[in-house]
Amino acid sequence: MPLRPFKRSTQQQTIIQAFTWHAGDQVMETLTQLQRRYDALHTDATRLAGTTGQLSQRAATYYHLYEDSGRNHIFPLIAAHGALWASGYFAFGMKLGELLSWQYGFSPRRRQQQLDALANFAEAFREVNRRVCVEIYTTYHFTKQYGQHPLASEFVRPELLTALRRLHDANQARTKLDDFSKRAIFETHFRDEQATIVGPRIENAVAKFGWPLMRFLALMPAVRFAYFPQGRWLQFWKFDRQEERISHGLKAFDLAAAVGWQQVEQTLDHYQILPNEFFANSLAHFANLRNDLLAAT
């Protein structure tokens, strides 16, 4: 659901809706107008993120955000790798589940219940990635247009708003941020998503998953994105622990910076999910995708 502004008194709301603010010669939107614009962006983001299974569409949307930022916004670039890598991981997990489900071979009904529970668990994780895409698209484009508005913090949390303002300022100035600055923005965005979207939903999914053996194994993925150097991976032991996810997320950034951003971009083809049109012209590919999806509604 779109983030709603904090509640105000009736008198405050009336005052806000009755007046507009001025910055220089520009008339600035009221809170109600900002809400409509935020909601419209959120609706677009939901369509672009697609369903949980539409990984190519979602990865292209992530990459658009990276590209639109002047290649300064690293969070969506690494998120694209995460979404595409997870496709193979979930496929492996379902096959492993099929094999291990024979521990319930004496009860076909129980075996099917556990396989259904595994499918629901995997779907909950895919839904997290979809929601992250919706949120990052919405906050990025909202702050790009209205980040300097005095009421922008009603829609985007203050720490994230500050980071995104810095990103947009650099892009407007056509400045390439150094890796230290990119990492600071990445960490702010990553921590925000972990606290508000990822963490609560993963904890809920783990609590509902009643297959102890598969739950134990599912929380210990060995993550190896395509740009990682030979022999390097990120081994999780308790994926439901937020600090472990944050620590490994920052390591994923550091590995990306070490191999170079061009290498991180190019290795998206390793997963064999994105179409050739994307690699031929990513800007045109996303423009066509956006036009097709948003014009159809």
TrEMBL record:
It comes from the Bacteria. This is Uncharacterized protein. It comes from Blastopirellula marina.
